[in-house]
Amino acid sequence: MNKCAEFAVFKVSKENKARVIELSLAIFNEMNAKGIVITAHEILQKTDDGAEICWHLTWKNKEVAKATTQQWPSFPSTKEFQSLVGKNVYYGHFIKAT
Fold first, then answer.
1. Which domain holds residue 56?
2. What is the CATH number of the domain that holds 44?
3. Which helix (H) or strand (E) is 61 found in, with range?
4. Reading across the β-sheet that carries 38-46, which strands appear in turn?
């Protein structure tokens, strides 16, 4: 099955940035707790706006990505993460164009 990429962009205040990064890593671990579904991840900062960070995740496939992200509210670190994010700017899954 084809791998699936996720891009999620968040606005985060300077004061909350370090904790949001910690929580992001915790969420990735929580998603992988029952088996590896995220095979690679990066947390990126926008070059011209330090308040925007991006998750670039590589999922095993689009089905796993969809099933896991539907569980978003149930992950232990999600509530605190969302309380510290100022705005969800963008979110989407992508597969290789054919």
1. 4-95
2. 3.30.70.100
3. none
4. 38-46, 49-59, 4-12, 85-95
Kindly give the residue spans of alpha helices, DSSP state H, lying in the chain: 17-31, 62-69, 78-84
Express each pLDDT in 23-32 by its tens digit. 999 999 999 9
Decide: 87 and 42 in contact? Cβ < 8 Å: no
Of residues 93, 91, 89, the one with CA closest to residue 12: 89
Answering whether pTM is above 0.90, one says yes
- Spatial neighbors of 47 by CB under 8 A, at least 6 apart, are none
pLDDT tens digits for range 10-23: 999 999 999 999 99
How many domains are contained in the chain?
1
Q: Is 93 helix (H, G, I), strand (E, B) or coil?
A: strand
CA 19, 24, 26, 29: dihedral to nearest 10 degrees? -170
